[in-house]
Amino acid sequence: MKPFRNRLTLIIMTLIGISMLGAGFAVASVFKQYHINLLEDNMIREINLIQGTLNFPDNSSGKEAEYYTAKSMQLQQLADARVTFIARNGSVIGDSEKSPELMDNHGEREEIRQAEQRGTGRSIRYSSTLGQDMIYVARPVTQGGFDGYIRLSMSLETVDEGVRKGWMVMGAGLLILFVVAALVSYRIAAGLTSPLEKITSVARNISRLDYDARVHLERKDEIGQLASAINGMADSLQTQLQTIRDNEGLLRSVLSNMTGGILMLSGDGTVVLINPAAEGMLGIKAGQIRGRSYTDLRQHYELNKVIEEGLERRERFQEERSLYFPIESVIRFDGVVMTHEDGTYRGMLFHLQDVTEIRRLERMRSEFVANVSHELKTPLAAVKGFAETLLGGVEDEKTSRSFIRIIYDESERLNRLIRDILELSKIESKRSVMEYSPIHLSTFFESLFEFMLPHARDKQIQMKMDVPDELFIEGDEDKLRQIFTNLLSNAVNYTQEGGRVQLSVDEVLSEEHGERVILTVKDSGIGIPKKDLPRIFERFYRVDKARSRGSGGTGLGLSIVKHLVELHSGTIKVDSEPGLGSSFVIELPMLQEG
User: Fold this and answer.
1) What H or E segment, with its residue span, contains residue 230?
2) For residue 556, what are the contacts with CB-CB under 8 A and spacing of at least 6?
3) Tens-place pLDDT, residues 53-96
């Protein structure tokens, strides 16, 4: 910045060297302008005086030109200035120097345009009417029957005469100015450039994203105001940048954590934005597709069709399509049109929602209704058939009692089925109240085995229990009894005579889940085929339907077991080999002390 200081000093000295000429013209110009300003202010006051004192009659008579011409001549004598009355459309309706009929339209004159825009118009120009330089001042007036402008004009000869007299006074002053300016020029240059150097340095730092940079100047002049403006700009930029970063972070967090997918396309089909949820649904990475056309998603034919239709229709829509990559899924597409602030088309925003699980649950609900109807149909048909036979009359008492026994057994089966359906419905709808209490596992399973042993002895099945004496868990005892009664009953029912059923309990420590208890029900029964393992916890699903009904099962037991285990914050899994038996493994949390 020091070269600029030197140049500034040289410029000042050069100006001093030509001060006799340059300063003279400058002072003369100021002097002249001062006189012109005084003259203009005086003319404005005279216009205001004319407006306040002159009578403005209704111009309906058609003699307004004569009236205003006469008045302008009278006013010229009083104001010592040319007076002109101009209509709103620019036509002259009265002038003190020349007939209005001979004058052109004044609507485009500088002073008239300024008066219309600012309230007061000023201009200096050569008057072709009078043949000399004139100063013009005009103001709009709407009063009485007059709607237009009053303009005063005066010759600048008196101003030029004053300037000529001023030249004599300025000569001595300019000489003194030359000497003083030469002495202080360098000091002035240094005083001006030093704070500017500081301001420039701070501005350069701000341009380099250093928004903590500030100008430290204790000045009240324009340079101090400039420094304050620079500091204020830095504060504003810092605040706005932080706001932008916060909003960007919030938007990024929302997009990243949305369960639904977001796919934004420009008007020409270029992918502008894709969030992680959409990446997972489509099996792609944002970096692979962002900035490219949607047609590059060649593996998703249905998706391309939806996008193509949305870009063509340019209206909101909802559709469901099946995608088969990376996995088969049902995706709901919500398309929304995006526009600019002026309403022009910008592109399309697609919201992708994976409804595969919803549609699977709907299908399961439909299958559940069908299965319930089917399960109820068989016992009802048996009850109805044997009841009709009894009503028709059966003479053999033994046969009658046999029919009645069948009716009773089928009604019991209906009762169990309805009870299990209601229990499952209560559990799934979260209406099953959990009554937690500490449970001593050894005592709990001893009572359960006493209940199961008679049935096991009938089939000569050996039942063993391996439960540590010191283990406790926290849970609902009735629901846990329902869980293990079901599992042990299934183990006994599906194990051949002479087989074995074993219950074991182990304590494990997991870094992720803390202390857990592993409860295993293992049998040496017929086992479950591999293809049926994923579905055995579904409602009404049976591996061997004939045997399940023969054993009195409703097909809901394992589904109830799974839901009750989940209510205890546990998990259940099964491992089985046909002909070798099955193992049901339940993992439950330990009793928390304290």
Assistant:
1) helix 222-257
2) 417, 420, 421, 423, 424, 539, 540
3) 888 887 655 678 888 888 888 888 887 888 889 888 888 888 88
